[in-house]
Specification:
Blueprint: H1 2-19, E1 27-32, H2 34-37, H3 41-52, E2 59-64, E3 72-73, E4 76-77, H4 78-85, E5 93-97, H5 110-130, E6 135-140, H6 157-175, E7 178-181, H7 184-196, H8 198-201, H9 213-226, E8 232-239, E9 244-249, E10 251-259, E11 261-268, H10 280-287, H11 291-295, E12 297-303, E13 309-314, E14 317-323, H12 324-329, E15 331-332, H13 339-366, H14 377-398, E16 403-408
Parallel strand pairs: 1-2, 1-5, 5-6, 6-7, 8-12
Antiparallel strand pairs: 3-4, 8-9, 10-11, 11-16, 12-15, 13-14, 13-16
């Protein structure tokens, strides 16, 4: 019976992965300007994939450069950027987020827009010619904050970015690209956050352009939803009166006991999203959005309990106290201090570390020393590549399922 259950869990996982945009063996390059260069929405996206699909192997490369437009920028003209920072990695998936700098922070100008539209089409054509079969996600520009501050001119700059995003919708339809809108969800959250706490809401985009971690989390959420990412981490339902598990999704619940309260063991196939709920801006972003409901549900339901208060521990660590009514309705463990959340945070820390190593390799060694051609440059780059490989391997190991002992008393 246990082997049959594990087979069903495996098949359920395969079904979830088959709906998800990324596949085992994919290599993703995130391409863009300074907002991508911040390595925040991209790192959140990577950590989600690694924690939600720990058996799947996907490689991520972050290739954002501050100030970039469709024509390139201080990192080189666009063809140089594509050759060096995209094609060299032979990606199977590429995301493109440009537009913030292309509109030049002024009212809509048809000639400037033509430069953007033609330049963007050149990028698509070059990528598809060099990497046939690549899957491209066009990202509508993230917002300029005209919500918590007054627009600088009639209509505001974000309206210009929305027009650029409309062009990308049409281009994505014509060129059969995937499309992610990172503007609308963040603007909606800004409006809700402003109604709740106007001062704190302004910190979601502190300089009106570059989001804080909370803003980047919502942008990652928008990208993941465009990729059909699953909402469920795990789901378990227990009938305490009948002493049986009546539902288990993406997990195996076993060894159920009902003596001095309930106890069982759980082996999950995924981890919750690593979230720093002590960060007030990130917490405001969550409260002002549907991120948790649509991407981070780790549900525990226990029905058939007597009235009263129940303490939940996992691996002997206190998680929280709940009424029987709350447990019957369902508790989202993703928002609680659990061993699984701590494990997810370990994975996220390694995600950040390997990306920092890659960034240092690229921006502090590969490019500045290229023209000097020192004798040991290549060996230094190779050593940094090996170091990043070690960190990615550690990241994958840290994401693997671990059994946990639950007790409800």
């Amino acid at each position: 019976m246990r082997n049959a259950f594990l087979l069903l869990v495996s098949l359920a996982g395969l079904h979830a992965q088959s709906d998800f945009y990324l596949h085992d063996g994919d290599r993703v390059v995130f391409y863009g300007d300074s907002i991508t260069n911040q390595r925040r929405y991209t790192v959140f996206t990577e950590s989600y994939v690694v924690t939600r699909f720990p058996k799947m192997r996907v490689t991520f490369v972050h290739s954002g450069w501050g100030g970039d437009r469709v024509s390139g920028g201080s990192g080189g003209p666009i063809d140089t950027r594509l050759e060096r920072d995209v094609f060299a990695y032979k990606p199977t998936v590429m995301t493109i987020m440009l537009g913030m700098n292309d509109g030049r922070y002024r009212a809509f100008d048809p000639a400037i827009f033509q430069d953007f539209s033609q330049g963007y089409q050149h990028i698509i054509e070059s990528v598809q010619k060099t990497l046939p079969g690549i899957r491209i996600t066009a990202i509508e520009p993230s917002p300029y904050d005209d919500v918590t501050r007054a627009p600088g001119f009639p209509g505001g700059y974000n309206a210009v970015l929305v027009r650029y995003g409309q062009f990308l919708k049409e281009l994505a339809h014509d060129q059969h690209l995937a499309l992610a809108d990172l503007n609308t969800p963040l603007v909606d959250a800004l409006e809700k956050a402003k109604a709740s706490d106007a001062t704190l809401a302004s910190k979601l985009l502190p300089d009106r352009v570059h989001p804080d971690f909370g803003g980047h989390l919502l942008m990652a959420g928008a990208l993941l939803k465009a990729w059909h990412a699953p909402a469920i981490v795990t789901a378990v339902e227990i009938d305490a009166a009948k002493k049986r598990v009546v539902r288990q999704e993406n997990t195996e619940a076993s060894d159920l006991e009902n003596k001095n309260g309930l106890a069982w063991t759980q082996l999950d196939a995924a981890l919750p999203m690593p979230l720093d709920l002590k960060d007030p801006v990130l917490k405001l972003a969550l409260d002002s959005s549907d991120f948790v409901d649509t991407l981070d549900r780790q549900m525990l339901r226990v029905r058939g309990l007597h009235e009263g208060s129940y303490a939940l521990t996992i691996d002997g660590e206190p998680v929280g106290s709940f009424t029987g009514e709350q447990l019957a309705a369902g508790v989202n463990l993703a928002l609680l201090p659990t061993p699984m959340a701590r494990q997810a945070a370990e994975v996220h820390a390694l995600t950040i570390k390997h990306n920092n190593v890659h960034y240092a390799r690229w921006r502090e060694f590969q490019l500045p020393l290229h023209d000097d051609a020192p004798e040991h440059l290549q060996s230094a780059l190779d050593a940094l590549d090996a170091l990043e490989t070690d960190l990615v391997a550690a990241q994958q190991r840290a994401a693997q399922p671990r059994p946990h002992k639950y007790e409800l008393r």
